Amino acid sequence: MNQSNVGFLDLPNEILLLILKKLSKMDILYSLLDVDHQRLDIIVQEKTFTNTLNFVLTTLTDDIFSLPDTIVDRFCTTILPRIHHNVKSLIVDSVSIERILLVGDYPNLTELKLYNFNRKVVSQYFTDQSPLRRIFQQQITNLILVFKTDLNKISVKQYTIDVYEYILKFFENLKDLSIMRSDSCYFPLLQLHDLPLTTFFSSTLNKLCIQVMSFQDCLALLGGRLKQLNTLIVDISSMEYPSSTIYNMDDLPNLKYFSLKSFYCLTNDYDTMILPLFRRMSNLEELTLYIIVHNRTIFIDGTHIYNEILIHMPRLHIFNFYISTRARMDSLVRHLSKDEIQRTLNNNIKYQQVDCIVNYEHDLVKCHVFSIPFMFEDLDNIGNIFPSIIFSHVRRLSVQDDVPFKHEFFNRIAFSFPLLNELYVGNFNPQSSISDEWNSNDNQLCSIVTYPYLISLHLIDVHIDYVDQFLNERKSHLPRLTELTIDYNQLIIVTDNFTRDATRLNCIKVKELNIYKK
After folding, report:
1. Above 80 in pLDDT, residue 89?
2. What is the reported pTM?
3. Which of 86, 114, 431, 503 could bond to 465 as cystine, CB 3.0-4.6 Å?
4. How far is it, in rounded angstroms, from Cα 446 to Cα 35?
Protein backbone atom coordinates (compact mmCIF):
# COMPACT_ATOMS: atom_id res chain seq x y z
CA MET A 1 0.00 0.00 0.00
CA ASN A 2 1.22 3.49 -0.86
CA GLN A 3 1.52 5.12 2.58
CA SER A 4 0.91 8.60 1.22
CA ASN A 5 -2.63 7.55 0.27
CA VAL A 6 -3.59 6.07 3.65
CA GLY A 7 -6.65 7.87 5.03
CA PHE A 8 -8.10 8.03 8.54
CA LEU A 9 -10.71 5.37 7.80
CA ASP A 10 -8.08 3.03 6.34
CA LEU A 11 -6.62 2.53 9.83
CA PRO A 12 -7.59 -0.63 11.74
CA ASN A 13 -10.18 -0.35 14.50
CA GLU A 14 -7.57 -0.72 17.25
CA ILE A 15 -5.66 2.33 16.00
CA LEU A 16 -8.83 4.33 15.47
CA LEU A 17 -9.88 3.64 19.06
CA LEU A 18 -6.50 4.76 20.41
CA ILE A 19 -6.79 8.03 18.49
CA LEU A 20 -10.42 8.70 19.41
CA LYS A 21 -9.79 8.05 23.13
CA LYS A 22 -7.52 11.11 23.14
CA LEU A 23 -10.42 13.35 22.08
CA SER A 24 -13.50 14.69 23.87
CA LYS A 25 -16.31 12.14 24.01
CA MET A 26 -18.89 14.81 23.31
CA ASP A 27 -16.97 16.07 20.27
CA ILE A 28 -16.64 12.54 18.92
CA LEU A 29 -20.35 11.81 19.25
CA TYR A 30 -21.38 15.18 17.86
CA SER A 31 -19.04 14.99 14.86
CA LEU A 32 -18.95 11.31 13.93
CA LEU A 33 -22.19 9.61 14.94
CA ASP A 34 -24.80 9.36 12.22
CA VAL A 35 -22.61 10.74 9.43
CA ASP A 36 -23.55 7.99 6.97
CA HIS A 37 -20.57 5.79 7.74
CA GLN A 38 -21.53 2.44 9.26
CA ARG A 39 -18.07 1.58 10.59
CA LEU A 40 -17.69 4.90 12.43
CA ASP A 41 -21.22 4.54 13.82
CA ILE A 42 -20.36 1.19 15.36
CA ILE A 43 -17.08 2.44 16.86
CA VAL A 44 -18.37 5.66 18.46
CA GLN A 45 -21.38 3.90 19.98
CA GLU A 46 -19.08 1.75 22.09
CA LYS A 47 -19.43 2.20 25.86
CA THR A 48 -16.03 3.89 26.00
CA PHE A 49 -17.56 6.96 24.35
CA THR A 50 -21.13 6.76 25.62
CA ASN A 51 -21.03 5.75 29.31
CA THR A 52 -20.31 9.32 30.54
CA LEU A 53 -21.77 12.43 28.90
CA ASN A 54 -20.93 15.98 29.95
CA PHE A 55 -23.21 18.84 28.88
CA VAL A 56 -21.41 21.46 31.00
CA LEU A 57 -18.18 23.32 30.29
CA THR A 58 -15.95 24.45 33.18
CA THR A 59 -12.84 26.60 32.88
CA LEU A 60 -9.66 27.01 34.92
CA THR A 61 -11.10 30.29 36.17
CA ASP A 62 -14.14 28.41 37.55
CA ASP A 63 -16.59 29.73 34.98
CA ILE A 64 -19.47 27.39 34.15
CA PHE A 65 -21.16 27.27 30.74
CA SER A 66 -23.85 25.14 29.19
CA LEU A 67 -23.22 23.67 25.77
CA PRO A 68 -24.64 25.76 22.91
CA ASP A 69 -28.28 25.05 22.02
CA THR A 70 -27.30 23.78 18.58
CA ILE A 71 -25.17 21.03 20.12
CA VAL A 72 -27.83 20.09 22.70
CA ASP A 73 -30.43 20.03 19.89
CA ARG A 74 -28.42 17.52 17.88
CA PHE A 75 -27.84 15.32 20.91
CA CYS A 76 -31.53 15.31 21.83
CA THR A 77 -32.88 14.68 18.33
CA THR A 78 -30.26 12.35 16.85
CA ILE A 79 -27.61 11.08 19.26
CA LEU A 80 -29.22 10.36 22.65
CA PRO A 81 -32.09 8.26 21.25
CA ARG A 82 -29.45 5.86 19.89
CA ILE A 83 -27.10 5.67 22.89
CA HIS A 84 -29.22 6.40 25.99
CA HIS A 85 -29.12 2.73 27.03
CA ASN A 86 -25.31 2.95 27.40
CA VAL A 87 -25.23 6.09 29.55
CA LYS A 88 -24.16 5.47 33.16
CA SER A 89 -23.11 8.98 34.19
CA LEU A 90 -24.60 12.32 33.20
CA ILE A 91 -23.34 15.87 33.85
CA VAL A 92 -25.98 18.54 33.15
CA ASP A 93 -27.28 21.87 34.41
CA SER A 94 -30.70 22.56 35.86
CA VAL A 95 -31.87 24.35 32.69
CA SER A 96 -31.47 21.38 30.36
CA ILE A 97 -31.88 18.37 32.65
CA GLU A 98 -35.55 17.67 31.84
CA ARG A 99 -35.09 17.97 28.10
CA ILE A 100 -32.09 15.62 28.09
CA LEU A 101 -33.55 12.98 30.42
CA LEU A 102 -36.89 12.80 28.61
CA VAL A 103 -35.19 11.74 25.37
CA GLY A 104 -34.80 8.11 26.50
CA ASP A 105 -35.24 5.60 29.32
CA TYR A 106 -31.57 5.56 30.44
CA PRO A 107 -31.88 2.10 32.04
CA ASN A 108 -28.23 2.10 33.20
CA LEU A 109 -27.98 5.67 34.48
CA THR A 110 -26.79 5.64 38.12
CA GLU A 111 -24.70 8.80 38.47
CA LEU A 112 -25.91 12.39 38.08
CA LYS A 113 -23.97 15.64 38.49
CA LEU A 114 -26.28 18.65 38.44
CA TYR A 115 -24.97 22.22 38.10
CA ASN A 116 -26.82 25.42 39.05
CA PHE A 117 -28.74 23.61 41.74
CA ASN A 118 -31.00 25.46 44.19
CA ARG A 119 -34.21 24.99 46.16
CA LYS A 120 -36.38 25.58 43.10
CA VAL A 121 -34.88 22.50 41.43
CA VAL A 122 -36.11 20.40 44.35
CA SER A 123 -39.70 21.63 44.04
CA GLN A 124 -39.66 21.34 40.24
CA TYR A 125 -38.02 17.95 39.65
CA PHE A 126 -37.59 16.03 42.92
CA THR A 127 -41.29 15.28 43.36
CA ASP A 128 -43.63 12.34 42.86
CA GLN A 129 -45.31 14.24 40.02
CA SER A 130 -42.07 14.78 38.09
CA PRO A 131 -41.67 12.83 34.82
CA LEU A 132 -38.11 12.14 35.99
CA ARG A 133 -39.20 10.53 39.27
CA ARG A 134 -38.43 6.93 38.27
CA ILE A 135 -34.82 7.66 37.35
CA PHE A 136 -34.21 9.74 40.46
CA GLN A 137 -35.92 7.49 43.00
CA GLN A 138 -34.97 4.05 41.70
CA GLN A 139 -31.75 4.37 39.70
CA ILE A 140 -29.52 7.19 40.97
CA THR A 141 -26.98 5.96 43.51
CA ASN A 142 -24.39 8.73 43.07
CA LEU A 143 -25.65 12.33 43.21
CA ILE A 144 -23.48 15.47 42.95
CA LEU A 145 -25.20 18.83 43.37
CA VAL A 146 -23.30 22.02 42.54
CA PHE A 147 -25.07 25.06 43.96
CA LYS A 148 -25.47 28.44 42.45
CA THR A 149 -26.31 31.33 44.79
CA ASP A 150 -29.51 30.49 46.67
CA LEU A 151 -30.80 33.32 48.85
CA ASN A 152 -33.78 32.28 50.96
CA LYS A 153 -35.91 33.91 53.61
CA ILE A 154 -36.27 30.65 55.50
CA SER A 155 -33.83 29.72 58.27
CA VAL A 156 -30.79 27.53 57.69
CA LYS A 157 -32.32 24.87 59.91
CA GLN A 158 -35.54 24.86 57.88
CA TYR A 159 -33.50 24.69 54.67
CA THR A 160 -31.80 21.60 56.07
CA ILE A 161 -35.19 19.95 56.53
CA ASP A 162 -36.79 21.13 53.28
CA VAL A 163 -33.84 20.45 50.99
CA TYR A 164 -31.10 18.27 52.43
CA GLU A 165 -33.27 15.85 54.41
CA TYR A 166 -35.81 15.71 51.59
CA ILE A 167 -33.11 14.69 49.09
CA LEU A 168 -32.04 11.74 51.26
CA LYS A 169 -35.64 10.56 51.48
CA PHE A 170 -36.53 11.11 47.83
CA PHE A 171 -33.50 9.34 46.33
CA GLU A 172 -34.27 5.92 47.76
CA ASN A 173 -31.09 4.11 46.66
CA LEU A 174 -28.55 6.88 47.24
CA LYS A 175 -25.08 5.67 48.25
CA ASP A 176 -22.92 8.67 47.39
CA LEU A 177 -24.01 12.29 47.95
CA SER A 178 -21.87 15.37 47.30
CA ILE A 179 -23.20 18.89 47.84
CA MET A 180 -20.82 21.66 46.84
CA ARG A 181 -20.78 25.19 45.53
CA SER A 182 -19.46 26.83 42.42
CA ASP A 183 -16.86 29.46 43.22
CA SER A 184 -17.96 32.54 45.20
CA CYS A 185 -21.62 31.59 45.47
CA TYR A 186 -23.73 31.52 48.63
CA PHE A 187 -26.12 28.81 49.75
CA PRO A 188 -27.42 27.67 53.15
CA LEU A 189 -25.18 25.12 54.87
CA LEU A 190 -26.27 21.96 56.63
CA GLN A 191 -27.28 22.59 60.25
CA LEU A 192 -28.22 19.58 62.37
CA HIS A 193 -27.59 20.65 65.95
CA ASP A 194 -30.65 20.18 68.19
CA LEU A 195 -32.54 18.38 65.40
CA PRO A 196 -33.71 14.79 66.07
CA LEU A 197 -31.62 11.82 64.87
CA THR A 198 -34.30 11.06 62.28
CA THR A 199 -33.36 14.28 60.44
CA PHE A 200 -30.92 13.64 57.59
CA PHE A 201 -31.01 9.91 58.29
CA SER A 202 -30.00 7.24 55.79
CA SER A 203 -29.43 3.51 55.98
CA THR A 204 -27.84 3.32 52.50
CA LEU A 205 -25.43 6.27 52.25
CA ASN A 206 -21.75 5.23 52.08
CA LYS A 207 -20.14 8.54 51.12
CA LEU A 208 -21.01 12.14 51.98
CA CYS A 209 -19.31 15.38 50.90
CA ILE A 210 -20.91 18.49 52.41
CA GLN A 211 -20.42 21.90 54.03
CA VAL A 212 -21.82 22.35 57.54
CA MET A 213 -22.44 25.31 59.80
CA SER A 214 -20.39 24.19 62.79
CA PHE A 215 -18.27 21.42 64.23
CA GLN A 216 -21.33 20.35 66.24
CA ASP A 217 -22.98 19.52 62.92
CA CYS A 218 -20.00 17.36 61.99
CA LEU A 219 -20.40 15.46 65.25
CA ALA A 220 -24.12 15.12 64.51
CA LEU A 221 -23.33 13.44 61.17
CA LEU A 222 -21.17 10.92 63.02
CA GLY A 223 -23.66 10.42 65.84
CA GLY A 224 -25.70 7.54 64.40
CA ARG A 225 -27.63 9.12 61.50
CA LEU A 226 -25.58 7.45 58.77
CA LYS A 227 -24.96 3.87 59.84
CA GLN A 228 -23.27 2.73 56.61
CA LEU A 229 -21.05 5.78 56.15
CA ASN A 230 -17.44 4.93 55.33
CA THR A 231 -16.36 8.22 53.70
CA LEU A 232 -17.01 11.71 55.09
CA ILE A 233 -15.70 14.91 53.50
CA VAL A 234 -16.77 17.92 55.54
CA ASP A 235 -16.07 21.64 55.27
CA ILE A 236 -16.82 23.51 58.52
CA SER A 237 -17.91 27.14 58.53
CA SER A 238 -17.27 27.70 62.26
CA MET A 239 -16.06 25.57 65.13
CA GLU A 240 -18.54 26.32 67.89
CA TYR A 241 -22.30 26.67 68.04
CA PRO A 242 -24.50 26.50 71.14
CA SER A 243 -26.09 23.10 71.38
CA SER A 244 -27.91 21.18 74.08
CA THR A 245 -27.46 17.83 72.31
CA ILE A 246 -24.94 15.28 73.59
CA TYR A 247 -23.75 13.27 70.61
CA ASN A 248 -22.74 9.63 70.47
CA MET A 249 -18.99 9.46 71.15
CA ASP A 250 -18.51 5.75 70.38
CA ASP A 251 -15.78 4.56 68.03
CA LEU A 252 -16.36 4.81 64.27
CA PRO A 253 -15.30 1.37 62.99
CA ASN A 254 -16.88 1.79 59.53
CA LEU A 255 -15.14 5.06 58.70
CA LYS A 256 -12.30 4.50 56.20
CA TYR A 257 -11.80 7.99 54.77
CA PHE A 258 -12.22 11.31 56.58
CA SER A 259 -11.55 14.82 55.29
CA LEU A 260 -11.89 17.91 57.48
CA LYS A 261 -11.51 21.54 56.42
CA SER A 262 -11.70 24.43 58.88
CA PHE A 263 -10.41 27.95 58.17
CA TYR A 264 -10.80 29.20 61.74
CA CYS A 265 -10.25 27.04 64.78
CA LEU A 266 -9.35 28.32 68.25
CA THR A 267 -6.71 26.28 70.03
CA ASN A 268 -9.11 25.19 72.79
CA ASP A 269 -11.60 23.89 70.21
CA TYR A 270 -8.82 22.02 68.44
CA ASP A 271 -7.71 20.34 71.69
CA THR A 272 -11.17 19.57 73.10
CA MET A 273 -13.21 18.76 69.98
CA ILE A 274 -11.05 17.83 66.99
CA LEU A 275 -8.37 15.71 68.66
CA PRO A 276 -10.91 13.56 70.60
CA LEU A 277 -12.70 12.88 67.32
CA PHE A 278 -9.52 11.46 65.77
CA ARG A 279 -9.21 8.98 68.64
CA ARG A 280 -12.48 7.37 67.54
CA MET A 281 -11.16 6.53 64.04
CA SER A 282 -9.01 3.47 64.65
CA ASN A 283 -9.87 1.87 61.29
CA LEU A 284 -9.22 4.97 59.20
CA GLU A 285 -7.17 4.31 56.05
CA GLU A 286 -7.03 7.78 54.50
CA LEU A 287 -7.04 11.19 56.22
CA THR A 288 -7.14 14.70 54.72
CA LEU A 289 -6.81 17.73 57.00
CA TYR A 290 -6.90 21.45 56.30
CA ILE A 291 -6.94 23.30 59.62
CA ILE A 292 -5.92 26.82 60.67
CA VAL A 293 -5.47 26.99 64.46
CA HIS A 294 -5.47 30.42 66.10
CA ASN A 295 -4.18 31.69 69.46
CA ARG A 296 -1.92 28.72 70.12
CA THR A 297 1.18 29.14 72.28
CA ILE A 298 3.38 26.56 70.53
CA PHE A 299 3.45 25.30 66.95
CA ILE A 300 1.80 22.11 65.77
CA ASP A 301 4.78 20.11 64.50
CA GLY A 302 5.55 16.57 63.42
CA THR A 303 5.87 15.28 66.99
CA HIS A 304 2.42 16.62 67.89
CA ILE A 305 0.86 15.19 64.70
CA TYR A 306 2.24 11.74 65.45
CA ASN A 307 1.43 11.64 69.17
CA GLU A 308 -2.02 13.22 68.97
CA ILE A 309 -3.32 11.98 65.61
CA LEU A 310 -1.39 9.27 63.78
CA ILE A 311 -0.78 6.98 66.75
CA HIS A 312 -4.56 6.46 67.01
CA MET A 313 -4.86 5.34 63.37
CA PRO A 314 -2.75 2.18 62.88
CA ARG A 315 -4.32 1.36 59.48
CA LEU A 316 -3.71 4.80 57.98
CA HIS A 317 -1.70 4.72 54.74
CA ILE A 318 -2.60 8.02 53.03
CA PHE A 319 -2.27 11.34 54.87
CA ASN A 320 -2.66 14.68 53.07
CA PHE A 321 -2.56 17.70 55.35
CA TYR A 322 -2.10 21.41 55.80
CA ILE A 323 -2.06 22.59 59.41
CA SER A 324 -1.35 26.24 60.11
CA THR A 325 -0.67 27.60 63.61
CA ARG A 326 -1.08 31.31 64.41
CA ALA A 327 0.64 32.50 67.60
CA ARG A 328 1.39 35.83 69.24
CA MET A 329 5.03 36.80 69.64
CA ASP A 330 6.02 36.27 73.26
CA SER A 331 9.52 36.76 74.64
CA LEU A 332 8.78 34.10 77.27
CA VAL A 333 8.00 31.43 74.65
CA ARG A 334 10.64 29.85 72.45
CA HIS A 335 9.26 28.87 69.08
CA LEU A 336 10.95 26.16 67.05
CA SER A 337 12.90 27.27 64.00
CA LYS A 338 11.99 26.14 60.50
CA ASP A 339 14.82 23.57 60.49
CA GLU A 340 13.71 22.17 63.85
CA ILE A 341 10.10 21.88 62.68
CA GLN A 342 11.26 20.18 59.49
CA ARG A 343 13.18 17.57 61.50
CA THR A 344 10.09 16.74 63.58
CA LEU A 345 8.12 16.25 60.37
CA ASN A 346 10.74 14.04 58.74
CA ASN A 347 11.13 11.91 61.88
CA ASN A 348 7.43 11.33 62.52
CA ILE A 349 5.59 11.33 59.18
CA LYS A 350 6.65 8.57 56.79
CA TYR A 351 3.73 8.53 54.32
CA GLN A 352 5.15 11.09 51.88
CA GLN A 353 7.28 14.21 51.63
CA VAL A 354 6.55 17.05 54.04
CA ASP A 355 7.59 20.68 54.28
CA CYS A 356 6.96 23.80 56.35
CA ILE A 357 6.85 27.60 56.13
CA VAL A 358 7.43 29.95 59.07
CA ASN A 359 6.40 33.58 58.57
CA TYR A 360 6.91 36.46 61.03
CA GLU A 361 4.65 39.48 60.63
CA HIS A 362 4.12 42.34 63.09
CA ASP A 363 3.46 40.64 66.44
CA LEU A 364 2.34 37.34 64.90
CA VAL A 365 4.23 34.23 63.89
CA LYS A 366 2.63 31.73 61.53
CA CYS A 367 3.76 28.16 61.03
CA HIS A 368 2.46 26.09 58.13
CA VAL A 369 3.19 22.35 57.97
CA PHE A 370 1.98 20.37 54.97
CA SER A 371 2.35 17.28 52.84
CA ILE A 372 3.83 17.33 49.34
CA PRO A 373 2.38 17.48 46.77
CA PHE A 374 0.19 20.25 48.22
CA MET A 375 -3.35 19.03 47.51
CA PHE A 376 -5.45 22.05 48.54
CA GLU A 377 -6.89 25.06 46.73
CA ASP A 378 -6.19 27.61 49.50
CA LEU A 379 -2.92 28.78 51.01
CA ASP A 380 -3.03 31.62 53.49
CA ASN A 381 -0.50 34.12 54.83
CA ILE A 382 2.86 33.14 53.40
CA GLY A 383 5.74 35.60 53.15
CA ASN A 384 8.95 36.10 51.18
CA ILE A 385 10.32 32.67 52.08
CA PHE A 386 8.50 29.61 50.75
CA PRO A 387 9.64 26.29 49.21
CA SER A 388 10.71 26.15 45.57
CA ILE A 389 7.98 23.70 44.56
CA ILE A 390 4.96 23.88 42.28
CA PHE A 391 1.65 24.36 44.11
CA SER A 392 -0.40 23.11 41.18
CA HIS A 393 -3.71 22.86 43.08
CA VAL A 394 -3.73 26.29 44.75
CA ARG A 395 -6.37 28.68 43.40
CA ARG A 396 -6.52 31.22 46.25
CA LEU A 397 -3.40 32.69 47.89
CA SER A 398 -2.64 35.46 50.37
CA VAL A 399 0.87 36.90 50.83
CA GLN A 400 1.83 39.11 53.78
CA ASP A 401 5.15 40.20 55.23
CA ASP A 402 6.99 43.00 57.00
CA VAL A 403 9.88 42.59 54.56
CA PRO A 404 9.23 44.27 51.17
CA PHE A 405 8.09 42.11 48.25
CA LYS A 406 10.52 42.72 45.41
CA HIS A 407 9.61 42.24 41.76
CA GLU A 408 11.40 38.87 41.75
CA PHE A 409 9.12 37.65 44.55
CA PHE A 410 6.10 38.02 42.27
CA ASN A 411 7.98 36.17 39.52
CA ARG A 412 8.35 33.27 41.96
CA ILE A 413 4.65 33.47 42.88
CA ALA A 414 3.58 33.27 39.24
CA PHE A 415 5.90 30.30 38.65
CA SER A 416 5.06 28.35 41.81
CA PHE A 417 1.28 28.95 41.62
CA PRO A 418 0.54 28.50 37.90
CA LEU A 419 -3.27 28.18 38.23
CA LEU A 420 -3.84 31.03 40.67
CA ASN A 421 -7.34 32.57 40.45
CA GLU A 422 -7.42 34.86 43.48
CA LEU A 423 -4.59 36.78 45.17
CA TYR A 424 -4.52 38.86 48.38
CA VAL A 425 -1.48 41.07 48.99
CA GLY A 426 -0.58 42.72 52.30
CA ASN A 427 2.62 44.73 52.77
CA PHE A 428 3.03 48.32 53.96
CA ASN A 429 6.73 48.54 53.14
CA PRO A 430 7.83 50.11 49.82
CA GLN A 431 9.50 47.94 47.22
CA SER A 432 12.35 50.46 46.91
CA SER A 433 14.00 53.07 49.06
CA ILE A 434 12.70 55.74 46.71
CA SER A 435 8.99 55.81 47.41
CA ASP A 436 8.04 57.55 44.17
CA GLU A 437 10.26 55.49 41.86
CA TRP A 438 7.21 53.92 40.21
CA ASN A 439 6.09 57.36 39.10
CA SER A 440 8.92 57.73 36.61
CA ASN A 441 9.73 54.21 35.48
CA ASP A 442 7.18 53.51 32.76
CA ASN A 443 10.04 53.04 30.33
CA GLN A 444 12.17 50.97 32.72
CA LEU A 445 12.93 47.48 31.43
CA CYS A 446 12.12 44.55 33.74
CA SER A 447 10.67 41.09 33.31
CA ILE A 448 6.89 41.14 33.04
CA VAL A 449 5.15 38.82 35.50
CA THR A 450 2.21 37.01 33.92
CA TYR A 451 -0.73 35.58 35.87
CA PRO A 452 -2.68 33.80 33.12
CA TYR A 453 -5.66 32.72 35.26
CA LEU A 454 -5.86 35.46 37.91
CA ILE A 455 -9.41 36.84 37.99
CA SER A 456 -9.56 38.45 41.46
CA LEU A 457 -6.93 40.76 43.01
CA HIS A 458 -7.11 42.30 46.49
CA LEU A 459 -4.75 45.20 47.26
CA ILE A 460 -6.08 46.51 50.56
CA ASP A 461 -3.32 46.82 53.17
CA VAL A 462 -0.47 47.65 50.82
CA HIS A 463 2.05 50.35 50.03
CA ILE A 464 1.28 52.15 46.77
CA ASP A 465 4.27 50.42 45.13
CA TYR A 466 2.28 47.17 44.98
CA VAL A 467 -0.61 48.85 43.24
CA ASP A 468 1.81 49.90 40.52
CA GLN A 469 3.40 46.44 40.56
CA PHE A 470 0.13 44.89 39.41
CA LEU A 471 -1.59 47.60 37.38
CA ASN A 472 1.48 48.64 35.38
CA GLU A 473 1.57 46.57 32.20
CA ARG A 474 5.36 46.88 32.09
CA LYS A 475 5.57 44.91 35.33
CA SER A 476 2.58 42.55 35.28
CA HIS A 477 0.24 41.02 32.74
CA LEU A 478 -3.28 40.19 34.00
CA PRO A 479 -5.22 39.01 30.93
CA ARG A 480 -8.23 37.68 32.88
CA LEU A 481 -8.55 40.14 35.77
CA THR A 482 -12.27 40.86 36.33
CA GLU A 483 -12.43 41.78 40.05
CA LEU A 484 -10.25 44.39 41.76
CA THR A 485 -10.35 45.44 45.42
CA ILE A 486 -8.22 48.53 46.05
CA ASP A 487 -7.77 51.80 47.96
CA TYR A 488 -9.40 54.62 46.02
CA ASN A 489 -6.66 57.21 46.62
CA GLN A 490 -3.93 54.81 45.55
CA LEU A 491 -5.90 53.92 42.43
CA ILE A 492 -6.25 57.59 41.51
CA ILE A 493 -2.53 58.25 41.99
CA VAL A 494 -1.19 55.19 40.18
CA THR A 495 -3.53 55.62 37.20
CA ASP A 496 -2.92 59.38 37.16
CA ASN A 497 -6.65 59.96 37.56
CA PHE A 498 -7.43 57.19 35.06
CA THR A 499 -5.32 58.71 32.27
CA ARG A 500 -2.06 56.74 32.51
CA ASP A 501 -1.65 54.50 29.47
CA ALA A 502 0.56 51.93 31.24
CA THR A 503 -2.32 50.98 33.58
CA ARG A 504 -5.09 50.61 31.00
CA LEU A 505 -4.44 47.09 29.74
CA ASN A 506 -4.55 45.29 33.10
CA CYS A 507 -7.79 47.08 34.07
CA ILE A 508 -9.62 46.78 30.78
CA LYS A 509 -11.58 43.60 31.68
CA VAL A 510 -12.45 44.53 35.27
CA LYS A 511 -16.18 44.12 35.84
CA GLU A 512 -16.28 44.43 39.63
CA LEU A 513 -14.37 47.26 41.30
CA ASN A 514 -14.41 47.33 45.10
CA ILE A 515 -12.92 50.61 46.34
CA TYR A 516 -12.53 52.17 49.75
CA LYS A 517 -10.83 55.14 51.37
CA LYS A 518 -8.44 54.78 54.28
Report:
1. yes
2. 0.89
3. 431
4. 54
